[in-house]
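Bit of a strange request maybe. I'm writing a small parser for structure token strings and I need a real example to test against, not something I typed by hand. Could someone generate the tokens for this chain?
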Amino acid sequence: MKKRILFIIFTLLLCFSSSFTSFAHDNLLVQDFADLLDDSEEQALNQKLEKISEEYEADIVVLTTDDLEGYTPHDYCEAFFDYNGYGQGAQNSGILLLINIQERDWYICSFGFCMEAFDEDVIEDTGDEMLDSLSSGKYSNAFNIFADECEYRLNGHINGFPFPFLKSLIISLVIGLILAFIVTAVMRGQLKSVKAQHTASNYVKSGSMMLTDSRDFFIYRHISRIRKPQNNGGSRGSSSGRSCGGGGKF
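Reply from user aminoacidic:
Good idea to test on real output. This should exercise your parser:
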């Protein structure tokens, strides 16, 4: 009888634990309020973001909307991230991609330690990578580019650069330099009749050139003017200091 009671208690605890786990994961990492993805695309992307978020202990979120409710893109990202309880660790770390389909805005906000891995320059580069896909309506492809870039940057921040392809590039460059040195050394060795000359006098026929007079003439003056760069539609900056953000149009 005692064992049966313990079994019932254990079963109830297990059910409670399962319910709590299910509740904790109700807050999906893909919030597609603008309906830019079909069900299969949304499910696959959410699984991918969950895997990256778990591995690097930072919530990677994709949010789409057609109304910012009067907020700026940056303030909307911060408010949504905080209100919905995103962020992991003591610093509530994470990265959020916002797509406002009505104004055709994209905006990325990074939080916690992700601000170091995903700074303004990285955000701008990521936007450039997604731009063609966003402009042509290939939203699933754009969001996967974002996810891959998050994984790439977080891995580099935690485990260090360079990645394998950079190592391959360096090795290729070294091999190329060695081959170029060998080829030029062989070609140089074949030029035995040519010797280095310290002056150009040996190349001038004696008595063929006589300089009798020389003058300096001021002909013209050239002034260079550099135009001040114009805003190209992108935006940078953080409104609070607790996050790093940037975005643009597509």
